[in-house]
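Worked Example 4.2. Consider the chain below.
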Amino acid sequence: MRRMVRETSLATDNFIYPLFIGPGSGVRREISSLPGQFHLSVDQLAREAGEIEDLGIPSVILFGLPSRKDEVGSEAWHPEGVVQQAIRALKKATPELCVMVDACFCEYTSHGHCGVIVDQALDNDATLENLGRLAVSYARAGADVVAPSGMMDGAVGFMRESLDEEGFEAVGILAYAAKYASGYYGPFRTAVDSAPAFGDRHGYQMDPGNIREAIREVALDVEEGADLVMVKPALAYLDVIGEVRRGFDVPIAAFNVSGEYAMLKAAAEKGWIDYDRVMMETLLSMRRAGADLILTYHAKEAARILSKGP
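Applying the procedure from the previous section yields the following structure tokens:
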């Protein structure tokens, strides 16, 4: 009876699984700040993608670890960059897997910021030019969706125009529309070595105290052509997800970020929580708030539990 009247459900179709791709071969190295997650070389992806597909997870999102960094992050749009190689490898191994790619520069720049720096400040418009190059490069490699995550003003519109001009009208855009300047990103920044060398990202990520601003940011991205919008982080911002759900009739994603994942892993290691139960309850809360999709490091674990049925 409880199953029959349940208002909110959780399914593997809701999951997007993050993957960290780096240089080299034969690399499958556990990430110290994200237990159970790995740095993978491109040659490891066929096996990984097969497992993901067998679990019924429909999509992955890629994050790159470049072999070199520079002031503008030019390795990000190199046609033989690790992410471009990874896209091609995934599409060859599992053609039906939806491949999304994070489109940002913090992992690729020597200073760790999300774009071009001029006089110790981020230059929004110069960064847009590079984001256009990045989006087209990923699309040429075969990406299904590009996901601008740097919170640059006008990024969605600029990328949509860049993609369309090159004939990639069918490539979607997942906008990190409401991305907060959060302390929950720490384990991720360790994983990709993207902590800023100076300053912080408060100038282009949102104030955690603001919710009306989030609605304005989402509205701008939808107007510019975003196919999906995201709230990040998820767990401390469930109210924001709810407000976006009530205000917009577009698919909404929630990013269950590294700090949220790592907290559960640490508490489970101490024996303080029933990990599986708390994990599933946490993911269900994001769905209940209104998220259609959840980007989560828990995806494979949750998919195995769901496969067992009630």
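The two ends are 12 Å apart (CA to CA). The domain at 2-307 is CATH 3.20.20.70 (TIM Barrel). Compare this with Example 4.1 before moving on.
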